[in-house]
Amino acid sequence: MIARMSHDPARASAITDLMRAGRETSRLSMVFRYAIAERLGLAVSDLECLDYLADIGSATAGQIAERTSLTTGAVTSMLRRLQQAGYVTAERDPADRRRVVVTIRPERIADLERPYERFAERAERLVEGYSAEEVRLLVRHHDRLQAMYLAELDHLRDGDTE
């Protein structure tokens, strides 16, 4: 881990605590996702695909491959599994028959949301205790983290070693 020391010891300690808390939250989030995927009888990549589709509605197989960092062959296998399990439909794009448009089946959304319900309720209660200013700070922080993750993913995909 790379750490830049602040000249203020209290700030440096707070930053160290924040970084540790972030790593632990990330680890627990991953463990939680694996547990939910297992409960639903899915692979984690399948769950990530369904989560993505739940957010945006429909996507092409290529967009799913880009979002999940899976090869097109792996996405094809994943989509086949999700279709067989009744989670998605995959139709040829009428504007470009080479593309497949994947859509989550609305009647299956409740099945996907159910394992998250208790956590979502607890998270809502947690956030209720924050001021609007604190919530906006958290949103800015998460937006910046997402941008950093996307940049690092691009860096890793491009094979950069620095």
Layout of helices and strands:
Blueprint: H1 9-40, H2 44-56, E1 58-60, H3 61-68, H4 72-84, E2 88-93, E3 96-104, H5 109-113, H6 117-128, H7 132-157
Antiparallel strand pairs: 1-3, 2-3
Helix pairs in contact: 3-4
> Which structural class matches the secondary elements?
mainly alpha
What is the N-to-C order of secondary-structure elements (H for helix, E for strand)? HHEHHEEHHH
Biggest beta sheet attributes: 3 strands, antiparallel
Radius of gyration: 19 Å
Instruction: For the largest sheet, list the strands in their spatial order.
Output: 1-3-2
The residue fraction in helices comes out at 55-70%
Count the beta strands: 3
> What's the end-to-end separation, in Å?
15 Å
Number of helices: 7
- Any low-confidence stretches, pLDDT <50, length ≥5? none
Principal-axes shape call:
globular
**pLDDT averaged over residues:** 91
Roughly what fraction of the amino acids lie in strands? 5-15%
InterPro entries: HTH_MarR-typ (IPR000835), MarR/SlyA-like (IPR039422), WH-like_DNA-bd_sf (IPR036388), WH_DNA-bd_sf (IPR036390)
Protein name: MarR family transcriptional regulator
Pfam families: MarR_2 (PF12802)
